[in-house]
Transcriptional regulator (Desulfosporosinus meridiei), 308 residues
Amino acid sequence: MIIDPLRIFVTIVENKHSSLAAEELYLTHPDVNSQIQSLEEELGSKLIDNTSKHLTLTQSGEIYYGYAKQILLLQDKAKQEIKQLSNVVTGDLRVGASYTIGEYILPSVVAEFAARYPKVEIDTAIANTQEIIHAVQENYLDIALVEGEVDNSDIMIRPIMEDEIILVVPNQHPLARLPIVTSEHLQDQVWILRESGSGTRAFSDKLIKEWGIEVRKTYVFGSGQAVKQAVTAGLGIALVSRCIVKKELNAKELKSIRIKGKRLTRSFYLIGSKDQETASEAIKAFMEHLFALEATSWKKIGKKGLDI
């Protein structure tokens, strides 16, 4: 069976009129009717009830419409994938990421993309969230992934995945003996924080303020790696992305403590130029690669980045 009758049939159903379908497909009305008649003869069943004043599908037509739509969608998908084989994506791509994403997620994302598009030259940059946002605004980066809230009307901002924030403490810390803590337990503690401009720092500052926590002392470090090492060494407690301490938690080098009544999450965001009409094929391909990743794929990528 050739595919054209399927497309004609689906177009008739969606336009609710054979004449409108003929116009859309640049066919004559008799040609459309002839194709549908041939299709019905091949199937041995009427698809359209011609006795009704309005277009009505028979029971066979209802069934066939569902399958015809699926067949046409698969055909279009196959054409796109075949087209990608012949249209090789090339060019330069400048990708940025904030530290948490850049150190633990971006390498696997880039590796998968590079395997699919080997002719794209990729440069990566890792900095804190505010620095990455500025680099995108100034066109130093084509596209980037950042953590925390982004409030800039002059760039594209799209949520790409959810990240869980957890409280981690040294194994010998008094809080480590508790199965669950409240905001009262967190009063007068020593906190390990990221530097200003970091998405994780903004998240921690916001929660400490919202919970009315009195902080005894803070130590500030410029990367997630340094923060978790400081906590492991017994310097203080910290709020961190779960993805950066998976290895240490499994090795029991530090402990995660539940906070009563709270599951802390934030979004990771894809940012770039608002003018996506002029984006290069390399940028468009990278965006499609990101959006094709389901939630389970993101989790697997995070695990790869942690060498678990």
Summary: The chain has three domains: 4-86, 91-161+267-305, 164-266. The first strand starts at residue 48 and ends at 49. Confidence is low (pLDDT under 50) at residues 303-308.
